[in-house]
Amino acid sequence: MHAFELVAGLVVVVSTFVSMTATFVVPRRACWAMRLAFMVNRGVRSAGVRLASLFGSVRAKDTVLATIAPLALLGQLASFLALFLLGYWVALTASAGSFASAARLASSQLFTAGIAARSGPGNSGIEVLAAITGGVAIALQIGCLPVIYDAFNRRESLVTLMESRAGLPALGPEVFVRHQLVASFDALPDLYRDWEKWSADLAESHVSYPIRLLFGSPAIGYSSLLAQLAVLDAAALHLSLMPSSAPTEARFCLRMGFTALRRIAGLLGREYDPDPLPDSEIQLGYEEFAQAVALISEVGVVLERTAEQAWPHFKGWRVDYDSLAYRLADEVVAPLAPWSGERSHVALALEMPKRPAHRSPGGKVVEEDRLRTRRSGE
């Protein structure tokens, strides 16, 4: 019986150590050892979303949602330490004589490096190992924080840039409108190139460390997912409305963008069609698309195709990421913006990007209320 307790306790300790190492040191996509971290993340996220749904103001909801990622980090550490405590508790029962003594000894070794250690003979090897384990677990968690926040900062740098490029919250047609209004259409290839690299970095960093998916943008109205969706929609609009002049960077941006979304969906266990047909249905409606095309044309963009002609081509591009983006936007509770689906977990009001008035020295303010009204469908 004593041998069974020793072996059972060590099995729990070793399994927990493998899980902790896979989560913090050598993370791998869909690794079985990361299941504990996934369970903690899902539990904390579910509780946070339910709590946020109880508040009425947007600021209160955002404050609650912003605590999900830090609490998930603490929850992971607490889960690992609890399992280590359980394992050493069971393993030391044989030499401690009772469960109460084993619990006191295991907690002392794990959390205080042996302040309450007993005197006399005992299983000193396991006690020393327990004392080392507590410090290693905490050190690994602290050591991962700079890596996690470095990826977060890289992700948010381009997201912040999109406030001037695509509005707040970001919207694909708004990318076209704003670049046309300031005569900077030639800057779009660089934008697509930057976001291709951004999507590649997202696919690598967030799949390796899934906890990063819980970190929302640092300010109300910002969303990395909506920013990416806006750039993908802009690229799809470019290729479908102006195929002969659309830059090659738009294609690469789309390819890497939906590849990143698919990797994240696969990590989260979400099913998707890996090879959808170009004429498959999408959740975005033709009426929304036609309104956006009319707005783009109205600000002076010269189009090669009408909305009706471009719609099948746009669908063929958007079908690769339409359902994935909508589902992820719902799960992370992104701001409710046009072209991003509904939010079933938390009630949010629809937000339209607010474009600043177009002014010039010595000139008059360009009236844009009519364009905004048309865009909102009022």
How is this structure best summarized?
It contains 14 helices and no strands. It is an all-alpha fold. α4 crosses α5.
How much helix is in the residues?
A: 55-70%
Contiguous runs where pLDDT drops below 50 for at least 5 residues: 366-378
The biggest sheet amounts to: none
Q: Write down the domain tally.
A: 2
Mean pLDDT: 85
Strand content: under 5%
Task: Please count the helical segments.
Answer: 14
How far apart, in Å, are the first and last alpha carbons?
76 Å
Let me know the number of strands: 0
In oligomeric terms, what are we looking at? single chain
Rounded to the nearest angstrom, the radius of gyration is 26 Å
* Helix/strand structural class: mainly alpha
Question: Strand-and-helix sequence, N→C?
Answer: HHHHHHHHHHHHHH
- Write down the overall geometry: elongated
Per-chain topology:
Layout (H helix, E strand, L loop, with lengths): L1 H23 L10 H18 L5 H9 L1 H29 L2 H14 L11 H43 L5 H10 L6 H21 L15 H18 L6 H20 L18 H13 L8 H12 L3 H10 L37 H8 L2
Task: Describe this entry's structure for a reader.
The protein is elongated. By secondary structure, the protein is mainly α. The protein contains 14 helices and no strands. The protein has helices at 2-24, 35-52, 58-66, 68-96, 99-112, 124-166, 172-181, 188-208, 224-241, 248-267, 286-298, 307-318, 322-331, 369-376. Helix content is 66%, strand content 0%. The chain folds into 2 domains: 2-143, no CATH class; 150-376, no CATH class.
Task: List its salient traits.
single chain; 378 residues; mainly alpha; 2 domains; 14 helices; disordered C terminus
